């Protein structure tokens, strides 16, 4: 029996992982396999997915719209050979991925027969200024979507969600727009009630030349870091960052892993799970426009976060 695929797309920091986490945590007995793709050498998102173990496959060090196309198709083939077979597959793309290229790959006749693309979900931060919809990548993510989910409603200013709805409607996007409070989207919208029908093939549009626009830089340390010093460092780096995320241990709370997120100019901290054995205490990925931030500058700023440094 075919295994329907849900493709989750959205710009950097939109809240895709929160949506996938909620979906997996409320699977209702469904066997859901998740394929998580991060842009960079450290796949932080794979560790943040609920129950990130046998059900989650990590594709790191690239984005699946370009360098990892073959890996994605091989990963899907591997998932389909599992016993028991998953009932659904969720693919979370990198925030820099053009989903039209991924859709094109999923239209491969062999994949379409075994793992048909059922739904494309685009997650958008409700607080995003409507003018940002002029961004070509964000428009491409909207263009292929069946459902647009407005996220981070608790952080957005009053009326922001309504303004974003109007801006999306002005683009004549045919997708259904819903609100995703804390990542919650009714599963009935995302998965079919029955799996005995095959979705119609999609036309993703003409292939566009790949545009290298962002780059990732990583900072890893075996030492815990000072939280006040980290706050100062992020204050210095913020004007140059499109996104940052990571896991670390602080001097103030030794032995406890913290989850760090920076998106839309906002930085958040939350307690994390116990770190896996044998990994560095601090692992943070920074995403910036090409050429805006050098590794040397990043290292210099971040090394000041180490206590006694």
Name some characteristics of this structure.
single chain, 309 residues, alpha/beta, Rossmann fold, Hypothetical Protein Yjia, Chain: A,domain 2, seven-stranded parallel sheet, five-stranded antiparallel sheet, 10 helices
Describe the structure concisely for a colleague.
With 309 residues, the chain is of the alpha/beta class. It is built from 10 helices and 12 strands. About 5% of the residues have low confidence.
Can you tell me about this structure?
The protein has 309 residues and is of the alpha/beta class. The chain has two domains: 5-190, Rossmann fold, CATH 3.40.50; 214-303, CobW-like, C-terminal domain (Hypothetical Protein Yjia, Chain: A,domain 2, 2-Layer Sandwich), CATH 3.30.1220.10. 27% of the residues lie in helices and 24% in strands. The protein is built from ten helices and twelve strands. The radius of gyration is 19 Å and the shape is globular.
What are the SSEs and their pairings?
Blueprint: E1 5-10, H1 16-25, E2 32-37, H2 44-48, E3 56-59, H3 69-80, E4 88-92, H4 99-106, H5 109-114, E5 117-125, H6 136-143, E6 147-151, H7 160-170, E7 176-179, H8 187-190, E8 214-221, H9 227-237, E9 243-249, E10 257-263, E11 266-271, E12 282-289, H10 295-303
Parallel strand pairs: 1-4, 1-5, 2-3, 2-4, 5-6, 6-7
Antiparallel strand pairs: 8-12, 9-10, 9-12, 10-11
The H-level CATH homologous superfamily of the largest domain, spelled out, is P-loop containing nucleotide triphosphate hydrolases
**Poorly predicted tracts of residues:** 51-55, 58-68
> How many H/I helices?
10
Principal-axes geometry comes out as: globular
């Amino acid at each position: 029996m075919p295994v329907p695929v849900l493709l989750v797309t959205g710009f950097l920091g939109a809240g895709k992982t929160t949506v996938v986490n909620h979906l997996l945590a409320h699977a209702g007995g469904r066997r859901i396999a998740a394929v998580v793709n991060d842009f960079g050498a450290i796949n932080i998102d794979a560790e943040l997915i609920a129950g990130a173990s046998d059900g989650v496959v990590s594709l790191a060090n690239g984005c699946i719209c370009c360098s990892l196309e073959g890996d994605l198709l091989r990963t899907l083939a591997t998932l389909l050979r599992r016993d028991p077979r998953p009932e659904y597959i969720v693919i979370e793309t990198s925030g820099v991925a053009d989903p039209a290229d991924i859709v094109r790959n999923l239209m491969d006749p062999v994949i379409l027969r075994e793992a048909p693309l059922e739904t494309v979900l685009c997650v958008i931060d409700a607080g995003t200024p409507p003018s940002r919809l002029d961004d070509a990548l964000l428009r491409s993510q909207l263009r292929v979507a069946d459902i647009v989910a407005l996220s981070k409603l608790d952080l957005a200013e009053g009326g922001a969600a309504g303004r974003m709805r109007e801006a999306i409607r002005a683009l004549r996007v045919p997708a259904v727009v819903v609100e995703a409070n804390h990542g919650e989207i009714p599963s009935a919208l995302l998965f079919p009630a029955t799996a005995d029908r095959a979705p119609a093939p999609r036309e993703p549009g003409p292939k566009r030349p790949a545009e290298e626009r962002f780059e990732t830089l990583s900072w890893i340390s075996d030492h815990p870091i000072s939280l006040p010093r980290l706050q100062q460092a992020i204050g210095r780096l913020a004007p140059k960052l499109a996104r940052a995320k990571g896991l670390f241990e602080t001097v103030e709370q030794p032995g406890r892993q913290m989850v760090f997120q920076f998106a839309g100019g906002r930085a958040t901290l939350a307690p994390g799970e116990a770190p896996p054995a044998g990994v560095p205490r601090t692992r943070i990925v920074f995403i910036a426009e090409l050429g805006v931030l050098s590794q040397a500058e990043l290292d210099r700023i971040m090394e000041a976060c180490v206590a006694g440094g």
